[in-house]
Design a protein that fits this description.
Radius of gyration: 43 Å
Helix content: 40-55%
Mean pLDDT: 74
Order of helices and strands: HHHEHHEHHHEEHEEEHHE
Distance between the termini: 76 Å
Low-confidence stretches: 2-6, 78-118, 340-369
Strand content: 5-15%
Number of helices: 11
Largest sheet: 4 strands, antiparallel
Amino acid sequence: MLYACKNSLLNLILHIIYMKIVNESYIIDYMQNNKEEISLKEVAKKKIMIGALSVAIVVSLGFSIYTSKHLNDDNDKETPKTSQVSQNQKGEGDKAKDKDEEPVYTNPMNEGKEDPVLTEGKKELSVGEMKGKEQEVRDLYREYKFDEGIKELDKLQSSYKFTEDAEVLKKLQDDGALFSNLFSGHLTDEDGEVNGLALVNLMGAFEDPEDLLIAMLHLDSDLRQYVILYDGSLNPVLYEEKTYPLISKKTTEEIPHEIGIMYPETKTYHKIEFTLEKFKLEAYILEDESGVLRFYMIKDPYNKSNYYTIGQWTKMEENRQSGRPIMDGVMELKDKANDGISTPTIEEEVESFEDTPVESTTETNENKK
């Protein structure tokens, strides 16, 4: 638009100059043809007027050119700033978008749960109510009924406040969302392959040690090697579709010297005693200061189970691929499962058999887990 105005103004000025020149020529011709009719005074007056008008036109033209030049300079200076602001805003938007795309394994129901608006009119749970609901949800999780456990917690939260005293319930609720992600096919691609990195990140997001053990036992045995730290850990291959663990005792122990060296960030060493297919086993889980849990191993302190270790399964696969006998060198790795574990006393072994449940906790199915 500015360019068009400048062209119009320039054409107008040139037209005026042309007309004045024509007029001046006309006057001069007229004077030459009519010398006796026009006085020298009148001619001088007309020439002065023409000169003044010409000067005014030149000044106006110069001012227009000067103004146009400075307007263009100002526009050139402002344009990069606007562009830079747009680029900065775009960059911040892209960063926010990338951040939003990262997988976050949390329960959406927990967002804003401490907001007074969301808790207004809700009752507080008594200690007895919290413990009762905790045990109810744990029983459901132990039988791999994760959706039912989540529904119980969501229903409870709709009527009661989840205060700081209900921290255990909040952890169970968060872990329930992780169970849903883990066992609903979200980690597999179109070819049915599991995303190993996503699996490791998800397993590292569990907040409760028992929930992590439940997830590990329900996980396919071929995938456990990616999330169990110690290759001397037992890796139970369960030929029944559903084999439920019976949790008997949960404690924390002094961090072993070798664990402190290999994993110096460890602040808590969890021990969970449980029964699986009538075998009494122990699970060990590491926890750092920030509460991040990592599954260290499963052991058979009484050496009664028939489960192979991760290392043994790996050795059998190597033998198969190389054409050697499957069990070549496998049994030599068995003792590695009990490295660093003291041998049970006779009294402990007797107590173990006396405490072993009589009824099986498995449901028959031909499929191998």
